[in-house]
Amino acid sequence: MAIIKTLQFLLILFLSSQSFAQNEEDDEGIKRSDFPNHFFFGTSTSSYQIEGGYVEDGRGTSNWDVFSHIPGNIKNSDTGDVADDHYHRFMEDIEMMSSMGMNAYRFSISWTRILPKGRFGKVNRRGIVFYNKIIDNLLLKGIEPFVTIHHHDLPDELDKRYGSWMSSHMQEDFVYFAKICFKEFGDRVKHWITINEPNLVTLMGYIKGVYPPAHCSPPFGNCSVGNSDIEPLIVMHNMLLAHAKAVFIYRTQFQKKQGGSIGLVAYCHMYEPLTNNEFDLQAVDRALIFSFAWVYDPIVYGDYPKEMREVFGSQLPSFSNTEKNIIKGSLDYICVNHYTTLYAKDCLHSPCSNGGDRPIKGFLDTMGYRNSVSIGDPTGMDRFFVVPRGLEKTINYINQRYPNKPIFVTENGYSTPPSDGNKVEDIINDTKRVNFHRNYLASLVRAMRNGADVRGYFVWSLMDNLEWIHGFNTRFGLVYVDFQTLERRPKLSAHWFASLLGGNLQHSSSILNKNTFDHLMYD
Ligand code: BGC
Questions:
Q1: What is the enclosing helix (H) or strand (E) of 318?
Q2: Cα–Cα–Cα angle for 9, 15, 18, rounded to 5 degrees
Q3: Ligand 1 closest atom vs CA 152
Q4: Which of 411, 461, 469, 472, when mutated, tests ligand 1's pocket best, judged by the most ligand atoms within 8 Å of its CB?
C-alpha cells in the first residue's frame, strides 16, 4: 500500500513538473519578497455562495433564494440553502486562511441577514452578531477584513416592491443598508467595497437573463420580461449612483472617525485582436470601454465614456450636475476582478454572427478560439482561459486610464475543468491551479515593476462553493469541499500558498506530501 502511495505521489510530482515546464509563460517563479511587506494576500468569497443557514436566525428571503428554488435555474438544482455551511463553520474557515499565511479576507454581507425586508423592516441584530464574530476572529488572527456590502444577493422584498435595480428607489435602499454596515462594523473594517461587479450584474441579469431577475429580450434570450438594450443602462446607472451616495455618506459621516477607505469592484477581461487588422485592434479598445470604463469612467471622471454616448445617445442616462459632483472621485482605490483574456473581433467593417453586441452594443464579438486553437488552456468555465500575460495588461490598462490610483486584484482564480479529472484525488492535486496562480502572480509583479501601485491580491476562492448557475461542480477553491459531508480538505494549491506565504498549514491528506512539495517549489 505504502509503495503504491509513493508511486502515486511521484507520478503527481512528475506530472506537475511537466505541466509547469510546458507553460509558455512559466518564468522565473515568484517569491514573497517580490511583493512589498505590507502587501495583502487574501482569499475572496461571497455570502450567498458559502454561508447557507438561509432561514436561520431571522435571515430574510433574497433574490437568489427565490431564483435557485425554481427548478432548472441552477445546474443539478443546487441552491445556497446550505452551501459550504460557513454560517456554522466560519471558525474552521478562518483557521484555514490563517494557516495558509493569508493576511486578508474579502467577504460579503448578506443583505437579508441584516435587513430581512430591506428598509421596510427591522434590523436583524442576530445578523449583526454573526458578522461581528467573523470580523473579530479575523482580526484576532491578524487577517484584515475587506468587506463587500453587496455581492449579487438582495432582499426579495425590493424586487417585489419595485424591481430592485430597475428603480431609482434602490439607491436609497442601498445607502440605508451601507450606513448600517459602516455604523456597526466600521470601527474594525478599514477596507470597504460597495458593490461587486455592476458590469456582470447587467450582463447576466439584464442582457442574457440567466441570473435573477432573469430579464432579457431576443436575440439574447427569450425571457418573459426585459429589454436587453435598454435595461442594462438603467440598472448600471442606479448601481453607480447607489455606490456614489454610499461613498458620500461614508466620507461625510464615518471616514474621518473610522479611518477606513472605500471603493467598488468591476470585472475586467483583457482582449487581444483576433487578427492584426486595425479594426480588430480598435475592437479591443471598444471591448474595454464598453465593459470596464462603463463602470470606472463615471467614478473617476464623473461621466460615461464618450464612445458609449455616441452609440446610445439619449438612451444612456445622464448624471445631473449634483450627481456628477458626488460620483466623480468616489473611490479611494480601484478593485478589479480578472479571470481571462479573449479575442476581440470588429463587427463594424465585417459581419459577425451575433450582430456585434458583445459587450453591450460595442459592435464587436469576443471569443476564446482562433482557427480552433484556444487563446490559453481551457478551464471549468466556457469563456475563461488561462492567459497569465492578461493580468499584466489589465493592470497596465487601468494604470494608464486612471493614473495614480492604488489597485487591488480582488478576484483571480482557476476552476477545474472535467479534463483535470473528477476523482477527489485529482481535484485535490490541483497542479494546474498552482501553475495558474504562480504565473498570474508573476504577471502581476511585472505590472508592479511597470509602475502600478498594486496593494493586494485575492484568490477566488477560499474554498469550493456555489458557482452561481453552474452549481457546486464548478470548483474554484484552494480548499476542497465535500458537499455531502461538508468536510474541508486543503488542495495542493492551499499548501503552495502556505509555502509561499510562510503559513503553517499541516499536511493532512494521505495523497499529498507537503514536505516534498515544498522542496520542489522553494528549494
Ligand atoms: C464573481 C464571483 C464568481 C466568480 C467566478 C466573479 O464574477 O464575483 O462571485 O464566483 O466570478 O465566476
A1: none
A2: 145
A3: 9
A4: 411
Contact yes or no for 503/99 (Cβ under 8 A): yes
On average, the pLDDT of the chain sits at 93
197, 187 Cβ separation under 8 angstroms: no
CB neighbours of residue 122 within 10 Å: 9
Active-site positions? 197, 411
Give Cα separations from 185 to 130, 194, 205 (angstroms).
11, 14, 30
The SS3 assignment for 456 reads strand
Domain residue extents for the chain = 33-269+288-339+387-522
Phi (first) and psi of residue 125, to 5 degrees: -60, -30
Instruction: Report the alpha-carbon distance of residue 481 to residue 467 in Å, rounded.
Output: 13
Note the pLDDT tens digit of each residue in 321-346: 999 999 999 999 999 999 999 999 99
pTM, two decimals, is 0.94
Ligand 1 neighbours (beta carbon < 6 A): 46, 196-197, 200, 267, 337, 411, 460, 467
Q: State the distance from the centre of ligand 1 to the C-alpha of 444, rounded, in angstroms.
A: 20
Of the candidates 39, 38, 42, which has an alpha carbon nearest to the alpha carbon of residue 460? 42
**CATH architecture of the region 33-269+288-339+387-522:** Alpha-Beta Barrel (3.20)
Q: pLDDT by residue (tens digit) across 36-90?
A: 999 999 999 999 999 999 999 999 999 999 999 999 999 999 999 999 999 999 9
